[in-house]
Amino acid sequence: MRILKKPAVNRKLLLILSGIMWSGVGILLNSFAFRWLQEYQGWPVTVSVLCGIVLGISIAFFGFRKVAATNIKRILEMPEYSCVFAFQKWQSYILIVVMMSMGIFLRTTNIFPRLYLAPVYIGIGSALLISSIKYYRTNG
Question: Of 86, 96, 97, 132, which has the most beta carbons under 10 Å away?
Fold first, then answer.
């Protein structure tokens, strides 16, 4: 009988993969928002983007920066080779599923106009992009 092993990677690679994941999701969320904003013109777009940027900087500074620092500390304390999915605590995966479900629900039900969803997506996406820099700057 063959036992499956965890897909293990070096800590340095795990840090890079974490940054890539955070950056990728940030780019994805921003691409949704900017695609939606193409339907609008003028000051509503400017206000939406500016609100999203301010929200993104705030989320990065007061929230995601600390989450990234905690994840980096945990990764650096791991054995040299660890599971590729260990860049987040397992509890964080539950939060990710809930947030993805909420995002899909809000996008598909049109409860809120996309003009109002765009700043939230820009905010979270920008915060992820900004915070992902911590992963790249860490030398494991």
Answer: 132
4-33 as b/e: b if 16+ CB within 10 A: eeeeebebeebbbbbbeebbebbeebbebb
Q: Are 62 and 130 in contact (CB under 8 A)?
A: no
State the amino acid at position 71 in one-letter form. N
Report the pLDDT value the prediction gives residue 7, as an integer from 0 to 100: 78
Radius of gyration of the chain, Cα coordinates, nearest whole angstrom: 17
**What's the pLDDT tens digit per position in 108-129?**
898 999 999 999 999 999 999 9
- pTM here is 0.87
The helix/strand/coil state of 1 is coil
Q: In the chain, count of helices (H) and strands (E)?
A: 5, 2
Structure tokens belonging to residue 85: 């999915």
Eight-state DSSP code of residue 2? P
Q: What is the pLDDT of residue 29?
A: 97
CA distance 56 to 32: 15
Task: State the Cα–Cα distance between residues 117 and 85, nearest whole angstrom.
Answer: 30
Q: Give the single-character DSSP code of 85.
A: G
